[in-house]
Amino acid sequence: MTVIDGKATAATIRAEVKERAAAFEEKCGKKAGLAVVLIGNDPASQIYVRNKIRACEEAGVRSFAHFLPEETPQRDALALIEALAADPSVHGILVQLPLPRHLDAMALLAAIPAEKDVDGFSAENIGKLAKNERGTVACTPLGVMELLRRYHIPVAGKRAVVVGRSNIVGRPMAMLLLNADATVTICHSKTQNLKEICREADILVAAVGKPKFITGDMVKEGAVVIDVGMNRDENGKLCGDVDYEGASAKVAYMTPVPGGVGPMTIAMLLQNTVEAAERTLS
Ligand code: NDP
After folding, report:
1. Which residue out of 5, 96, 158, 243 is catalytically annotated?
2. Active-site residue 96, yes or no?
Protein backbone atom coordinates (compact mmCIF):
# COMPACT_ATOMS: atom_id res chain seq x y z
CA MET A 1 0.00 0.00 0.00
CA THR A 2 1.28 3.44 -0.92
CA VAL A 3 0.61 6.19 1.59
CA ILE A 4 -0.32 9.38 -0.24
CA ASP A 5 1.81 11.96 1.53
CA GLY A 6 -0.21 15.17 1.56
CA LYS A 7 2.26 16.94 3.81
CA ALA A 8 5.18 16.46 1.42
CA THR A 9 3.06 17.21 -1.66
CA ALA A 10 1.72 20.38 -0.05
CA ALA A 11 5.28 21.49 0.78
CA THR A 12 6.26 21.04 -2.88
CA ILE A 13 3.25 23.06 -4.04
CA ARG A 14 3.93 25.80 -1.49
CA ALA A 15 7.50 26.10 -2.81
CA GLU A 16 6.12 26.37 -6.37
CA VAL A 17 3.61 29.01 -5.26
CA LYS A 18 6.38 30.97 -3.53
CA GLU A 19 8.29 31.18 -6.82
CA ARG A 20 5.18 32.33 -8.68
CA ALA A 21 4.43 34.89 -5.96
CA ALA A 22 7.98 36.26 -6.26
CA ALA A 23 7.67 36.46 -10.05
CA PHE A 24 4.36 38.33 -9.67
CA GLU A 25 5.93 40.79 -7.22
CA GLU A 26 8.85 41.40 -9.54
CA LYS A 27 6.55 42.04 -12.48
CA CYS A 28 4.13 44.45 -10.84
CA GLY A 29 5.98 45.82 -7.80
CA LYS A 30 3.53 44.55 -5.22
CA LYS A 31 2.78 41.26 -3.56
CA ALA A 32 -0.16 39.01 -4.27
CA GLY A 33 -2.64 39.75 -1.48
CA LEU A 34 -5.15 37.62 0.41
CA ALA A 35 -7.74 39.15 2.73
CA VAL A 36 -8.91 36.83 5.49
CA VAL A 37 -12.11 37.77 7.31
CA LEU A 38 -12.89 36.09 10.62
CA ILE A 39 -16.08 37.04 12.44
CA GLY A 40 -16.62 35.80 15.97
CA ASN A 41 -14.74 33.60 18.44
CA ASP A 42 -14.95 30.05 17.05
CA PRO A 43 -11.72 28.45 18.38
CA ALA A 44 -11.23 26.08 15.43
CA SER A 45 -11.72 28.97 12.98
CA GLN A 46 -9.15 31.03 14.86
CA ILE A 47 -6.58 28.24 14.44
CA TYR A 48 -7.40 27.78 10.73
CA VAL A 49 -7.11 31.53 10.11
CA ARG A 50 -3.82 31.78 11.98
CA ASN A 51 -2.43 28.89 9.91
CA LYS A 52 -3.59 30.52 6.69
CA ILE A 53 -1.96 33.84 7.60
CA ARG A 54 1.31 32.09 8.49
CA ALA A 55 1.22 30.14 5.23
CA CYS A 56 0.77 33.40 3.31
CA GLU A 57 3.83 34.92 4.97
CA GLU A 58 5.95 31.87 4.15
CA ALA A 59 4.84 31.97 0.50
CA GLY A 60 5.50 35.69 0.03
CA VAL A 61 1.78 36.48 -0.18
CA ARG A 62 0.61 39.57 1.71
CA SER A 63 -2.22 38.85 4.11
CA PHE A 64 -4.84 41.34 5.25
CA ALA A 65 -6.41 39.97 8.42
CA HIS A 66 -9.77 41.33 9.53
CA PHE A 67 -11.04 40.06 12.87
CA LEU A 68 -14.54 41.26 13.64
CA PRO A 69 -16.48 40.72 16.88
CA GLU A 70 -19.18 38.05 17.20
CA GLU A 71 -21.99 40.64 17.25
CA THR A 72 -20.93 42.36 13.98
CA PRO A 73 -24.08 43.40 12.09
CA GLN A 74 -24.66 42.18 8.54
CA ARG A 75 -24.26 45.67 7.05
CA ASP A 76 -20.78 46.12 8.63
CA ALA A 77 -19.61 42.71 7.42
CA LEU A 78 -20.97 43.49 3.97
CA ALA A 79 -19.29 46.92 3.94
CA LEU A 80 -15.93 45.30 4.73
CA ILE A 81 -16.27 42.73 1.96
CA GLU A 82 -17.29 45.43 -0.52
CA ALA A 83 -14.25 47.50 0.45
CA LEU A 84 -11.97 44.48 -0.02
CA ALA A 85 -13.65 43.74 -3.36
CA ALA A 86 -12.72 47.26 -4.53
CA ASP A 87 -9.16 47.20 -3.13
CA PRO A 88 -6.59 46.52 -5.91
CA SER A 89 -4.02 45.23 -3.37
CA VAL A 90 -6.39 42.39 -2.47
CA HIS A 91 -6.44 39.59 -5.06
CA GLY A 92 -8.28 37.01 -2.99
CA ILE A 93 -10.94 37.27 -0.28
CA LEU A 94 -11.63 34.47 2.17
CA VAL A 95 -14.48 34.61 4.65
CA GLN A 96 -13.87 31.94 7.27
CA LEU A 97 -16.89 29.70 7.80
CA PRO A 98 -18.96 29.02 9.83
CA LEU A 99 -20.20 32.57 10.49
CA PRO A 100 -22.19 33.58 13.57
CA ARG A 101 -25.80 32.46 13.18
CA HIS A 102 -27.30 35.95 12.86
CA LEU A 103 -25.33 36.61 9.67
CA ASP A 104 -26.54 35.69 6.18
CA ALA A 105 -23.49 33.79 4.93
CA MET A 106 -24.81 33.40 1.39
CA ALA A 107 -25.34 37.15 1.02
CA LEU A 108 -21.83 37.87 2.29
CA LEU A 109 -20.21 35.28 0.03
CA ALA A 110 -22.20 36.66 -2.91
CA ALA A 111 -20.50 40.03 -2.37
CA ILE A 112 -17.10 38.53 -3.19
CA PRO A 113 -16.42 39.05 -6.91
CA ALA A 114 -15.79 35.75 -8.73
CA GLU A 115 -12.24 36.80 -9.66
CA LYS A 116 -11.36 37.25 -5.95
CA ASP A 117 -13.31 34.18 -4.78
CA VAL A 118 -10.27 32.04 -3.89
CA ASP A 119 -12.46 29.54 -2.01
CA GLY A 120 -14.48 28.81 -5.16
CA PHE A 121 -17.81 29.19 -3.32
CA SER A 122 -19.40 31.88 -5.53
CA ALA A 123 -22.37 30.97 -7.70
CA GLU A 124 -20.32 31.88 -10.79
CA ASN A 125 -17.44 29.57 -9.90
CA ILE A 126 -19.76 26.71 -8.88
CA GLY A 127 -21.61 27.17 -12.19
CA LYS A 128 -18.35 27.00 -14.12
CA LEU A 129 -17.38 23.80 -12.31
CA ALA A 130 -20.79 22.30 -13.07
CA LYS A 131 -20.33 23.17 -16.76
CA ASN A 132 -16.70 21.94 -16.78
CA GLU A 133 -15.42 25.42 -17.56
CA ARG A 134 -12.31 27.05 -16.17
CA GLY A 135 -12.91 28.81 -12.84
CA THR A 136 -11.70 28.77 -9.26
CA VAL A 137 -12.40 25.52 -7.45
CA ALA A 138 -12.90 24.90 -3.71
CA CYS A 139 -9.53 24.22 -2.08
CA THR A 140 -10.14 20.84 -0.41
CA PRO A 141 -11.51 18.94 -3.43
CA LEU A 142 -8.97 20.67 -5.65
CA GLY A 143 -6.27 19.40 -3.30
CA VAL A 144 -7.61 15.86 -3.65
CA MET A 145 -7.40 16.07 -7.46
CA GLU A 146 -3.86 17.41 -7.17
CA LEU A 147 -2.88 14.43 -5.01
CA LEU A 148 -4.34 12.01 -7.56
CA ARG A 149 -2.50 13.83 -10.37
CA ARG A 150 0.86 13.97 -8.62
CA TYR A 151 0.65 10.28 -7.68
CA HIS A 152 -0.18 9.44 -11.32
CA ILE A 153 -3.42 7.76 -10.29
CA PRO A 154 -5.66 7.39 -13.35
CA VAL A 155 -9.18 8.77 -12.97
CA ALA A 156 -10.73 8.56 -16.46
CA GLY A 157 -13.09 5.61 -16.78
CA LYS A 158 -12.76 4.64 -13.10
CA ARG A 159 -15.67 4.10 -10.73
CA ALA A 160 -15.48 6.91 -8.15
CA VAL A 161 -17.67 7.06 -5.07
CA VAL A 162 -17.90 10.23 -2.97
CA VAL A 163 -19.47 9.82 0.46
CA GLY A 164 -20.79 13.25 1.48
CA ARG A 165 -22.58 15.97 -0.50
CA SER A 166 -21.64 19.22 1.25
CA ASN A 167 -21.17 22.36 -0.80
CA ILE A 168 -17.56 22.72 0.28
CA VAL A 169 -16.34 19.13 -0.20
CA GLY A 170 -18.68 16.40 -1.49
CA ARG A 171 -20.45 18.17 -4.34
CA PRO A 172 -17.42 19.95 -5.89
CA MET A 173 -15.39 16.74 -5.39
CA ALA A 174 -17.92 14.74 -7.39
CA MET A 175 -17.96 17.41 -10.13
CA LEU A 176 -14.18 17.40 -10.41
CA LEU A 177 -14.06 13.61 -10.69
CA LEU A 178 -16.82 13.72 -13.31
CA ASN A 179 -14.94 16.43 -15.23
CA ALA A 180 -11.91 14.11 -15.12
CA ASP A 181 -14.06 11.42 -16.80
CA ALA A 182 -14.69 9.16 -13.81
CA THR A 183 -18.06 7.44 -13.42
CA VAL A 184 -19.25 9.06 -10.23
CA THR A 185 -21.69 8.07 -7.51
CA ILE A 186 -22.51 10.48 -4.66
CA CYS A 187 -23.63 8.98 -1.35
CA HIS A 188 -25.24 10.73 1.63
CA SER A 189 -27.15 10.01 4.80
CA LYS A 190 -30.19 8.66 2.93
CA THR A 191 -28.18 6.34 0.67
CA GLN A 192 -29.22 2.69 0.81
CA ASN A 193 -26.68 -0.15 0.48
CA LEU A 194 -23.78 2.21 1.22
CA LYS A 195 -21.40 -0.66 1.89
CA GLU A 196 -22.07 -2.33 -1.49
CA ILE A 197 -21.71 0.98 -3.35
CA CYS A 198 -18.43 1.81 -1.60
CA ARG A 199 -17.09 -1.65 -2.40
CA GLU A 200 -17.51 -0.93 -6.11
CA ALA A 201 -15.27 2.13 -5.92
CA ASP A 202 -11.89 2.22 -7.63
CA ILE A 203 -11.55 5.66 -6.03
CA LEU A 204 -13.38 6.21 -2.74
CA VAL A 205 -13.53 9.70 -1.23
CA ALA A 206 -14.85 9.94 2.33
CA ALA A 207 -16.16 13.37 3.41
CA VAL A 208 -18.66 12.44 6.10
CA GLY A 209 -17.35 13.93 9.35
CA LYS A 210 -17.73 10.73 11.37
CA PRO A 211 -14.67 9.08 12.92
CA LYS A 212 -13.68 5.76 11.27
CA PHE A 213 -17.07 5.54 9.54
CA ILE A 214 -15.70 3.71 6.48
CA THR A 215 -14.54 0.31 7.70
CA GLY A 216 -12.21 -2.19 6.01
CA ASP A 217 -15.13 -4.30 4.73
CA MET A 218 -16.47 -1.27 2.81
CA VAL A 219 -13.45 -0.90 0.53
CA LYS A 220 -12.46 -2.85 -2.54
CA GLU A 221 -9.15 -4.72 -2.78
CA GLY A 222 -6.68 -2.43 -4.60
CA ALA A 223 -8.82 0.71 -4.32
CA VAL A 224 -7.59 4.30 -3.88
CA VAL A 225 -9.00 5.75 -0.66
CA ILE A 226 -9.00 9.49 0.02
CA ASP A 227 -9.95 10.43 3.55
CA VAL A 228 -11.10 14.05 3.86
CA GLY A 229 -12.47 13.67 7.38
CA MET A 230 -10.95 15.54 10.31
CA ASN A 231 -12.43 14.19 13.52
CA ARG A 232 -11.46 13.37 17.08
CA ASP A 233 -11.68 9.74 18.19
CA GLU A 234 -12.83 8.57 21.62
CA ASN A 235 -9.38 9.45 23.03
CA GLY A 236 -9.38 12.93 21.54
CA LYS A 237 -6.87 11.90 18.85
CA LEU A 238 -7.20 13.36 15.35
CA CYS A 239 -8.62 10.75 12.95
CA GLY A 240 -10.30 10.55 9.58
CA ASP A 241 -13.59 9.17 8.32
CA VAL A 242 -11.88 5.91 7.34
CA ASP A 243 -10.71 3.18 9.70
CA TYR A 244 -7.06 3.39 8.65
CA GLU A 245 -5.96 -0.01 9.99
CA GLY A 246 -8.92 -1.87 8.49
CA ALA A 247 -8.74 -0.21 5.07
CA SER A 248 -4.98 0.06 4.60
CA ALA A 249 -4.61 -3.74 4.64
CA LYS A 250 -6.64 -3.96 1.42
CA VAL A 251 -6.18 -0.81 -0.63
CA ALA A 252 -3.47 0.27 -3.08
CA TYR A 253 -3.28 3.96 -2.11
CA MET A 254 -4.55 5.84 0.89
CA THR A 255 -4.26 9.27 2.50
CA PRO A 256 -3.48 9.36 6.22
CA VAL A 257 -5.09 11.69 8.78
CA PRO A 258 -3.31 13.87 9.72
CA GLY A 259 -0.88 14.49 6.85
CA GLY A 260 -3.16 13.69 3.91
CA VAL A 261 -5.81 16.03 2.52
CA GLY A 262 -5.55 18.62 5.32
CA PRO A 263 -2.22 20.22 4.33
CA MET A 264 -3.34 20.31 0.68
CA THR A 265 -6.23 22.65 1.48
CA ILE A 266 -3.95 25.52 2.52
CA ALA A 267 -1.55 24.85 -0.37
CA MET A 268 -4.48 25.14 -2.81
CA LEU A 269 -5.66 28.35 -1.14
CA LEU A 270 -2.23 29.89 -1.74
CA GLN A 271 -2.22 28.61 -5.32
CA ASN A 272 -5.70 30.02 -5.99
CA THR A 273 -4.59 33.39 -4.55
CA VAL A 274 -1.47 33.63 -6.69
CA GLU A 275 -3.47 32.59 -9.76
CA ALA A 276 -6.02 35.32 -8.98
CA ALA A 277 -3.14 37.83 -8.78
CA GLU A 278 -1.62 36.56 -12.04
CA ARG A 279 -4.98 36.93 -13.79
CA THR A 280 -4.93 40.67 -13.06
CA LEU A 281 -1.84 40.94 -15.31
CA SER A 282 -3.44 39.37 -18.36
P1 NDP B 1 -20.88 18.11 6.31
O2 NDP B 1 -21.34 17.78 7.69
O3 NDP B 1 -21.27 19.42 5.71
O4 NDP B 1 -21.34 16.95 5.32
C5 NDP B 1 -21.29 15.61 5.69
C6 NDP B 1 -21.88 14.77 4.61
O7 NDP B 1 -21.83 13.41 5.06
C8 NDP B 1 -23.35 15.09 4.34
O9 NDP B 1 -23.58 15.18 2.96
C10 NDP B 1 -24.10 13.94 4.95
O11 NDP B 1 -25.28 13.57 4.27
C12 NDP B 1 -23.10 12.81 4.83
N13 NDP B 1 -23.38 11.78 5.82
C14 NDP B 1 -23.61 11.93 7.13
N15 NDP B 1 -23.91 10.75 7.71
C16 NDP B 1 -23.86 9.83 6.72
C17 NDP B 1 -24.10 8.44 6.67
N18 NDP B 1 -24.46 7.75 7.75
N19 NDP B 1 -23.95 7.82 5.50
C20 NDP B 1 -23.62 8.49 4.37
N21 NDP B 1 -23.39 9.82 4.37
C22 NDP B 1 -23.52 10.49 5.51
O23 NDP B 1 -19.31 17.97 6.36
P24 NDP B 1 -18.14 18.57 5.39
O25 NDP B 1 -18.34 18.12 4.01
O26 NDP B 1 -17.98 20.01 5.67
O27 NDP B 1 -16.88 17.84 6.02
C28 NDP B 1 -16.74 16.43 5.99
C29 NDP B 1 -15.49 16.06 6.77
O30 NDP B 1 -14.36 16.63 6.11
C31 NDP B 1 -15.43 16.59 8.20
O32 NDP B 1 -14.75 15.65 9.01
C33 NDP B 1 -14.62 17.85 8.08
O34 NDP B 1 -13.96 18.19 9.29
C35 NDP B 1 -13.64 17.45 7.03
N36 NDP B 1 -13.07 18.56 6.28
C37 NDP B 1 -11.73 18.53 6.08
C38 NDP B 1 -11.12 19.52 5.37
C39 NDP B 1 -9.66 19.42 5.15
O40 NDP B 1 -9.04 20.41 4.82
N41 NDP B 1 -9.06 18.24 5.29
C42 NDP B 1 -11.87 20.67 4.83
C43 NDP B 1 -13.30 20.56 5.01
C44 NDP B 1 -13.85 19.54 5.72
P45 NDP B 1 -26.59 14.53 4.18
O46 NDP B 1 -26.27 15.54 3.13
O47 NDP B 1 -27.68 13.60 3.77
O48 NDP B 1 -26.77 15.12 5.54
Report:
1. 96
2. yes
> What pLDDT is recorded for position 206?
98
- To the query of whether residue 52 is one of the catalytic residues in this protein, the response is yes
Question: Is 76 a known active-site residue?
Answer: no
Q: Which amino acid is at 85?
A: A
Does residue 138 line the site of ligand 1, with CB under 6 A?
no
143 plus 258 within the same structural domain: yes
Does 58 lie in the same domain as 161?
A: no
Cα(262) to centroid(ligand 1), Å: 14
Instruction: Ligand 1, residue 191: give the atom nearest the CA.
Output: 20
What is the total count of domains within the chain?
A: 2
Short-list 150, 145, 149, CA closest to 162: 145
Residue 125 is assigned to a structural domain of this protein: no
Closest residue by Cα to residue 139 from 228, 19, 230, 226: 228
Going from the Cα of 213 to the center of ligand 1, the distance in angstroms, rounded, reads: 11
Indicate whether 81 and 193 sit together in one domain: no
Q: Which residues of the chain have pLDDT under 70?
A: none
Given this model, what pLDDT does residue 41 score? 94
Range of the domain at 76: 29-113
5, 31, 116, 119: the active-site residue: 119
- Bridge partners (DSSP) of residue 39 are 68
pLDDT for position 282: 81
pLDDT score at 11: 98
Q: Establish if 280 belongs to a structural domain.
A: no
How much is the pLDDT for 190?
98
Taking the C-alpha atoms of residue 168 and residue 157, their distance in angstroms, rounded to an integer, is 25
The CB of 230 under 6 Å from ligand 1? The reply is yes
Ligand 1 atom closest to Cα of residue 261: 41
